[in-house]
Amino acid sequence: MAVFDKKAVDYDQWYESKLGRFADEVETKLAFSLFKPIPGMKILDVGCGTGNFSIKLVEKGCRVVGIDISEEMLEKAREKAKLKNLDIDFLNMDAYSMNFPDENFDGVFSMAAFEFFNEPQKVYDEMYRVLKQNGYLLIGTINRQSKWGKFYISKSSRENSIFRYAHFKSLDDLKSLNREKVIDSGECLFIPPDAKEEDINMEFERKFSCNKRGGFICVLWKKA
Which pTM value belongs to this model? Predict the structure, then answer.
């Protein structure tokens, strides 16, 4: 999508804010509590954007290929990897029709990208196709059934951001992509998008988790 080319310049600014850093922290913690990277694993990062999770996976000892359709996003990802002296293959590729053979990766990973796929089942099937037997597939995305989902669906948010192109999912929506192979799932980011600065911490995250839906959800599948 050309809109992501335009957003590449300031896409990472969100992660420089206190709320953005906190969201990244809890989302990363949830993802890696479900999908446990092992050094040497060959992993595909689908919708890698500016490479945030590709870099995290490589720093855990994995070999990573990141794909995205935005060349501007990929250029940012390459710059960030080069600054860290990390070897990552970032490829411009359509997630609906991946140019990889069957059963090519030990793991397939997609964080904060799935809401932008108009045909999620088609992308999931491609991710599953390139995954090796006994490999793990993880998808993380914004939870439609949460305050974060409602915030991004609101008219003001959709008019002024890339989220006007998003199609948000519930936890059940994600699981329905392949119910038989689901082995685990989880939620995080329980603090609301309008949280006060002083409430952006793990204490309030735990407090809100008692009676709120997480703003971010992850589902893990195993190909077996």
Answer: 0.93
